[in-house]
């Protein structure tokens, strides 16, 4: 029963992130599901990140840590953050407020026999044509990373 409550609470948190920020800004997510084994998807994400000349800055294995603390059979949940200083410099030069999009991240989790992979996308309707073009380019790269990871 406790496990179900924790899973439900986690899903509510994840779902609440898929809406509007308190300042009114909509955050779009790119999400894909696959039947591919979780550990394979995780390994492919790391490869795709490296192939795009990005560096992993953090990896949190939330599900594993909860299992290690004694909650047997807790599902897998991972977050991976990554960045490229050249991209960061460009983004911050175009808009210092864009720091909220850094570092980029991908989350993956096991749910109902599937592996779910998601990343938040950068806004492409800021009113700054250069920033929008850069964000569009970054969004394409983020989608490629996710797609590579789930590809069968």
List the helices and strands and how they pair.
Blueprint: H1 2-16, E1 29-34, H2 38-51, E2 55-60, H3 62-68, E3 77-83, H4 85-94, E4 104-111, E5 114-120, H5 129-150
Antiparallel strand pairs: 1-5, 2-3, 3-4, 4-5
Helix pairs in contact: 2-5
Q: Give the DSSP E fraction (strand runs of 2 or more residues).
A: 15-25%
Q: Poorly predicted ranges (pLDDT <50, ≥5 residues)?
A: 4-23
Number of helices: 5
Shape: elongated
Radius of gyration: 16 Å
Q: Give the averaged pLDDT, no decimals.
A: 87
Largest sheet: 5 strands, antiparallel
**SSE order:** HEHEHEHEEH
Approximate helicity band: 40-55%
Strand order of the largest sheet: 1-5-4-3-2
Q: Separation of termini?
A: 34 Å
The tally of strands reads 5
* Helix-and-strand structural type: alpha+beta
